[in-house]
Specification:
Layout (H helix, E strand, L loop, with lengths): L6 H12 L4 H8 L3 H8 L7 H11 L8
Length: 67
Amino acid sequence: MKRELSPWGKQCKIQMLTLEKSLNDICRETNLSRSYVSSIINGRTVAPDETVGAISRVLDVDMGLKR
């Protein structure tokens, strides 16, 4: 069964390419672990709004897409 990315997750991945930011770059800027950030972006983990907001700010993604 293939999992579909949320609009927020898709936009995060697009922004990562556009801004040339790696997962490690995001982790450094948010002080979150690589596996946790990956799980949030890929929709495997539901994170608090504060955490989603931190990732959204780093990637300049509308947090409203997460809803």
